[in-house]
TrEMBL record:
Residues 1-19 form the signal peptide. GO terms for molecular function: co-receptor binding; receptor antagonist activity. GO terms for biological process: negative regulation of canonical Wnt signaling pathway; Wnt signaling pathway. The lineage of its organism: Eukaryota, Metazoa, Chordata, Craniata, Vertebrata. It comes from Solea senegalensis (Senegalese sole). This is Dickkopf-related protein 3-like isoform X1. Residues 54-100 form the Dickkopf N-terminal cysteine-rich domain. Its main location: secreted. Pfam families: Dickkopf_N (PF04706). One of its GO terms (cellular component) is extracellular space. It is found in: Secreted.
Length: 196
């Protein structure tokens, strides 16, 4: 009996501890907003909206968005503040990597994308911290090694080599294509001009 009680206490402690650790690792607040939400101005109308329950943004009115996780209307957030989606940031900012940032014009490096054609010349659409953004293609001499898969590949990706370049092992002399042996564990791969 005491063993079961001890196990229950241990599980409860680890749940709280793990939540704190994950919150710290993700650099996000662990607890729901105190008093419903932060109040920007001292007025009865703002107070009423800041504690209103919601399930979409229209309910909250101008200057507020719906925090769908807690179901509360909260003030729009400024640059550098935590967010989960664009609608939580003030106009001109977008929610990227969990914080409100200045929006980057479409097609430029760092702008959101879905496919390569959404990006400018010599760029591709690849994941950066899990978010698909325009990145520049790799130039001659840059490392182009890509793991076969896994979490690191899923969260952060690189573009392929720029036009006219191929990703090749730079630690050994160039081999003819028929002699080429793929060695994924080798990380000395760079973008190179193909050998005839």
């Amino acid at each position: 009996m005491s063993g079961n009680l001890w196990m229950l206490c241990l599980c409860l402690c680890f749940s709280w501890t793990e939540a704190r650790i994950w919150a710290w690792m993700l650099n996000m607040p662990h607890s729901p907003p105190k008093d419903g939400a932060k109040i920007v101005r001292e007025s009865a109308q703002v107070s009423k909206v800041a504690t209103a329950t919601c399930d979409h943004d229209r309910v909250c009115g101008r200057g507020f968005s719906c925090d769908r996780h807690f179901g509360l209307c909260v003030p729009l957030r400024g640059e550098g503040h935590y967010c989960r989606r664009d609608a939580q940031c003030v106009r001109g900012l977008s929610c990227m990597f969990g914080k409100c940032h200045r929006s980057i014009p479409n097609g430029q490096e760092g702008a959101r994308c879905k496919v390569d054609r959404d990006c400018g010349a010599s760029m591709c659409c690849a994941r950066h911290h899990g978010e698909q953004v325009c990145k520049r293609r790799l130039i001659r001499g840059e490392s182009c090694f890509v793991p076969d898969g896994g979490l690191a590949f899923s969260i952060n990706q690189i573009c392929p080599c720029d036009d006219g370049l191929l990703c090749r092992d730079s630690s050994s002399p160039p081999r003819r294509e028929r002699e080429f042996i793929y060695q994924p564990e080798q990380k000395s791969w760079t973008c190179q001009v193909p050998q005839p």
